[in-house]
């Protein structure tokens, strides 16, 4: 991320934290409890196997960790964020978690791989110095390079009646095309909120002898699919 955009982003969230304290409003989510709806979609690959490891990009207060743990997940967790204040709260709440101040798009960043790499709310601000599309593609490619099983990210959709001038709405077809360059097996969900969508990129896109994705064949064999 361009340095000016990085500083603007940090100040935006630090300002919200000063205003609202350790509350969902500090993350820009409001009071309605929609964060759990988002997590329910993004965590789909994780909850299918509750022992897999998770890299949470833009972890905020590490709320995703709480969501997963409440549902029986017991894997390893690493959270990244670029806002010191948010990480301070997360560390106070979870002193035993691996929480790091890292910009995943920065050159030279070294991180261990995780089974599932998740990012919620990463791409919703309009950049002033950088290019949003370049930034999103860079971040997704980096997340893909760190994932062993899947990447789960969400966006604000262009299929809306109003776009806030400071917000960034991503074309679902464009996002799908970015994902398609990385894997043949994707899930795009535009069914859980009116103005948002999620993209899950599965790294295993191998194909069975009858020309079905191998993961689908295995799910059928296990009785998970008809």
Low-confidence spans: none
DSSP, total strands: 7
Strand order of the largest sheet: 3-2-1-4-5-7-6
Principal-axis shape equals globular
The CATH class is Alpha Beta
Structural account:
The protein has 226 residues and is of the alpha/beta class. It contains 8 helices and 7 strands; from the N terminus they run H-H-H-E-H-E-H-E-E-H-E-H-E-E-H. Strands 3-2-1-4-5-7-6 form a 7-stranded mixed β-sheet, with helices on both faces. The chain is globular. The mean pLDDT is 94.
Short structural description:
With 226 residues, the chain is an alpha/beta fold. The chain has eight helices and seven strands.
What layout of secondary structure does this protein have?
Elements: H1 3-20, H2 34-42, H3 44-47, E1 54-57, H4 63-70, E2 77-81, H5 84-93, E3 98-101, E4 114-119, H6 132-146, E5 147-156, H7 172-180, E6 185-189, E7 196-202, H8 214-221
Parallel strand pairs: 1-2, 1-4, 2-3, 4-5
Antiparallel strand pairs: 5-7, 6-7
């Amino acid at each position: 991320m361009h340095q000016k955009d990085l500083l603007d982003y940090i100040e935006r969230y630090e300002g919200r934290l000063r205003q609202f304290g350790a509350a969902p409003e500090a993350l820009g989510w409001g009071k309605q409890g929609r964060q759990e709806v988002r997590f329910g979609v993004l965590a789909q690959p994780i909850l299918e196997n509750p022992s897999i490891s998770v890299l949470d990009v833009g972890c905020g207060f590490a709320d995703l960790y709480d969501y997963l743990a409440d549902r029986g997940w017991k894997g390893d967790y690493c959270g990244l964020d670029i806002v010191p204040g948010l990480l301070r709260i997360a560390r106070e709440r979870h002193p035993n978690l691996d929480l790091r101040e890292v910009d995943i798009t920065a050159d030279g960043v070294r991180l261990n791989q995780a089974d599932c790499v998740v990012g919620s709310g990463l791409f919703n601000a309009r950049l002033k110095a950088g290019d949003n599309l370049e930034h999103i593609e860079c971040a997704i490619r980096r997340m893909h390079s760190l994932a062993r099983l899947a990447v789960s990210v969400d966006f604000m959709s262009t299929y809306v009646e109003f776009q806030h001038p400071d917000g960034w709405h991503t074309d679902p077809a464009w996002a799908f095309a970015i994902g398609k360059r990385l894997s043949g097996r994707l899930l795009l969900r535009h069914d859980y909120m009116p103005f948002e969508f999620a993209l899950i990129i599965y790294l295993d896109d191998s194909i069975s002898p009858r020309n079905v994705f191998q993961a689908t064949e295995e799910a059928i064999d296990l009785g998970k699919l008809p």
